[in-house]
Design brief:
By secondary structure, this protein is an all-alpha fold. Helices cover about 100% and strands about 0% of the residues. It comes from Brassicogethes aeneus (Rape pollen beetle).
């Protein structure tokens, strides 16, 4: 029985220690929260503000990258249009050269046709002369 009483006393001491421990933990934790909570709330607000600003900066940076890509694309287009003007000028020159060559070839064809007609006339005249000479020789030879 003496053992039982000692156990009861130990148990009561433990309960007292636990009760006093739990009763002292709550005010201590509230005090700790009162000390650090305002600065933590401020830090949380500042972090939220910072992340919002970072997101805004990322969006702006993305927009700037897109506009830079458009400018680069515009420069490429500008370069292409510059080359297009050069090639268009070359094409105009080639067309002009082709027209000149066509005109020359047409003139040469006309000249060749005239020369052929002249040769044919000369050949016809020559054959006519030869025929008339042959006829004269035949007439002279028959007499």
């Amino acid at each position: 029985m003496a053992l039982n009483q000692e156990e009861k006393i130990i148990q009561q001491n433990n309960e007292f220690d636990e009760n006093s421990l739990f009763s002292s933990i709550e005010p201590l934790s509230k005090g700790l929260l009162n000390i650090y909570e305002p600065s933590l709330v401020v830090a949380q607000k500042q972090l939220k503000e910072l992340t919002d600003k970072q997101e805004l900066m990322l969006k702006q940076l993305h927009q700037e990258n897109l506009s830079l890509l458009e400018v680069q694309h515009d420069q490429d287009l500008e370069h292409i249009f510059g080359r297009l003007k050069i090639y268009q000028a070359k094409l105009v020159n080639i067309k002009k050269d082709i027209k000149t060559l066509h005109d020359r070839s047409s003139k040469l064809k006309k000249r060749a046709l005239k020369l052929q007609q002249i040769k044919e006339k000369e050949e016809a005249v020559k054959q006519q002369k030869e025929l008339s000479l042959k006829q004269e020789e035949d007439l002279i030879g028959n007499k």
